[in-house]
Amino acid sequence: MYLGLDLGTSGLRGLLVSDDGYAVGEASANYGVQHQQTGWSEQDPQDWINACQSVMDSLRASYANEYKRLRGIGISGHMHGAVCLDEAGKVIRHCILWNDTRAAKEALELDMQPKFRALSGNIVFPGFTAPKLLWMARHEPNNFARVAKVLLPKDYLVYWLTGELTSEMSDAAGTSWLDVGKRDWSRALIDGSGMRPDQMPKVIEGSDIVGEVRGEIIADLSLPANITVVAGAGDNAAAACGIGAFREGQGFVSLGTSGVLLAAKDNYAPEPASAVHTFCHAVSGKWYQMGVILSATDSLNWLAETMGKTAQDLAKNLPDRVAGPADVRFLPYLSGERTPHNDAVARGAFIGLSKASNADILCQSVMEGVGFALRDCLEALKSTGTELPSVIAIGGGSSSHFWLQTLSNILNIPLHLPVKGDFGAALGAARLAMLGIGGRPSAEVMVPPIIERSFEPDPNYNAAYDTAYYKYTKSYIALKELM
C-alpha cells in the first residue's frame, strides 16, 4: 500500500492506494487561513501537522488492514509558500501562502533584474517565494535574521516525517530561486534576492527517496516500521501525475479554488512575457507549462455566499443545454490575476446588468467569466508554441456538465471527464511513491483515467463565444483605468 497526502489550502487529504494503482481508502481534515490585512494570507504549519495526525488516525481506524501494509508515502502541496526555520529547525513565523500579495513591490523589483526571467523561465509573481523573503528582510528584519532554511509547505511535512530538509524540482521551480532549465538552485538568483545558498534545502526529483519516517512518528501514529517517504510534488505537477499527463500534448484543466490549464512538455521552452508558468515536472526529465487564474470555483462560491445559496444550488438550476453566452459578462479577478495579466490589484466586475439579470444569468456569467479567463491562458500557451488538442477536466467545478460544455465551447477543444474516482494530487503523490520505491517505469504507473463523458465544442456557437471573448478581453483593459 502507498499513501498520497495532498496538503491543500483549506485542508489535507490522505489517499491509500494499492500496488495496482487503485484507491482503497481516504480521509481528510480541514484548517483555516488567516487574513490579518488586505492581501495577506497565512497558515500556521502546526495546523498541517495536526491535520496529518488526524488523517492518519482516521485511516488507521477505518482501513486497519490496509494501514498495516503501508510501504511508502508521497506528498503534494500548495506551492510558493514560505516556511522559515531557525537553526534549531523551529518555525519562525506563520507560512506566507501562495495567494498572499503583500510582496508585489518586491516581486516587481526582482523581475526587473533580467537574470530572474532568463534563469527561472518565469515572471517573478508576487505569490512566489523569493519576494516573500525580500519582504521579510524589509518589514520583519528580526525574523529574517533568524532564517536558517526556507521550506515549501509540503516539504515541511516531509521534514516533520523524516527529519530531512529537502525540496524537489516541481515545487522549487515556483520559488524564483531555481534554474528551471538546469533543474538546480541558481546561485545568481539566490544572491540576487538577498539570500544565501545554505538557506536552501537539498533539491531532488519528485520520486527520489528522502528517507524513512522517524521512529517517534512511527510510534505516535502506530505506523508499520520502515516506511519510506519520497520527495513528492507541487500540487499541479502531482495532479498531472494523477491523470497521467507527462508527455507532450497531454494536459488538464482544473476548476478548483483557482483555475489551471496545464500542458506537459518534453522539453524546456519558456516564454516568461506570456505570464505562462514554465516549471519542472515531478517526473524526471520532463517539464510543464500552465496558465493560472486565481478565482475559479472561488468566484462561484463568492456569488453563492453573497446570494445566501450554495454553489451546487446555483449550478443545478441552470438549463440542461448550453445555448450561447449570456448578455452579462463577469471578470473573475476577485483576488487579482496571474495569467496573462500579472496584476495583483485587478478586481472583478459584472458588466451589462439589467432587471432581467436573475440568479441563473449571474451564475452562467460567472462560469463564462472563468472560462474566458482560461481562454486567456490557452492563448498564452499557444503563444509559446504549446498545443493542447484536448484536456481532461478535474476539480470540484467539473461536477457541473453545464460548466464543462460552456468551457469546451469557449476553449474550442474537447474536454474529457473521468469516471468518478480519485485522479487528483493525492493519487499523483502516491504514484510518485510507487515510482521511487517500487522502481516501476513512469508509463506503467502514470496511466490516464477511463473517460466517462466527453464534451465537444458546439460549432453553432463558435462565433458567439469568440465575440464574447473579444469583449471580455477589452473589458479588462477598459476597467483597469477605473480601478
From TrEMBL:
Domain Carbohydrate kinase FGGY C-terminal: 252-435
Keyword annotations of the record: ATP-binding, Carbohydrate metabolism, Kinase, Nucleotide-binding, Transferase, Xylose metabolism
Active site as annotated: 235
One Gene Ontology molecular-function label: D-xylulokinase activity
Reactions this protein catalyses: D-xylulose + ATP = D-xylulose 5-phosphate + ADP + H(+)
Its EC number(s): 2.7.1.17
Domain of life of the native organism: Bacteria
Residues at which substrate binds: 79-80
Site annotation Important for activity: residues: 6
Domain named Carbohydrate kinase FGGY N-terminal: residues: 1-242
First-tier enzyme category under EC: transferase
Entry-linked PROSITE patterns: FGGY_KINASES_1
Tagged with keyword Kinase: yes
Function: Catalyzes the phosphorylation of D-xylulose to D-xylulose 5-phosphate.
Family to which this protein belongs: Belongs to the FGGY kinase family.
Protein name: Xylulose kinase
Native organism: Sneathiella marina
Source organism phylogeny: Bacteria, Pseudomonadati, Pseudomonadota, Alphaproteobacteria, Sneathiellales
